[in-house]
């Protein structure tokens, strides 16, 4: 079910400030760039030198990004 659901049509309905966390992408544009265009009032934080599962392998960096976002 996770892969069958397409959240894209609902992303423009998000009204709160939104943080998108992404690793360095070789793709251009990255999925985060695409989502930023769909979610109003969103911003991207890039975590350099990150593997695919950022939150599991770099929890300190992810937590710092979230805290910085919340302090704005």
Describe this structure in words.
With 72 residues, the protein is an alpha+beta fold. It has three helices and two strands. Strands 1-2 form a two-stranded parallel sheet. β1, α1 (31-38) and β2 (42-47) form a beta-alpha-beta unit.
Secondary structure topology:
Layout: E1 18-23, H1 31-38, E2 42-47, H2 54-57, H3 59-70
Parallel strand pairs: 1-2
Helix count, per DSSP?
Answer: 3
Q: Average pLDDT value?
A: 90
Low-confidence stretches: none
* Residues in β-strands, percent: 15-25%
Major sheet attributes: 2 strands, parallel
- Determine the structural class based on helices, strands and strand pairing: alpha+beta
Rounded to the nearest angstrom, the distance between the terminal CA atoms is 35 Å
Elements, N to C (H/E): EHEHH
Characteristic key phrases:
33% helix; 72 residues; 2 strands; two-stranded parallel ribbon; alpha+beta
Describe the structure concisely.
With 72 residues, the protein is an alpha+beta fold. The protein has three helices and two strands, in the order βαβαα. It has a two-stranded parallel sheet.
């Amino acid at each position: 079910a996770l892969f069958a659901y397409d959240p894209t049509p609902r992303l423009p309905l998000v009204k709160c400030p939104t943080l998108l966390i992404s690793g360095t992408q070789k793709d251009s544009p990255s999925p985060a760039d695409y989502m930023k265009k769909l979610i109003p009032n969103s911003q991207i934080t890039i975590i350099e030198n990150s593997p695919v599962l950022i939150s599991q392998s770099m929890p300190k960096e992810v937590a710092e990004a979230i805290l910085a976002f919340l302090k704005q």
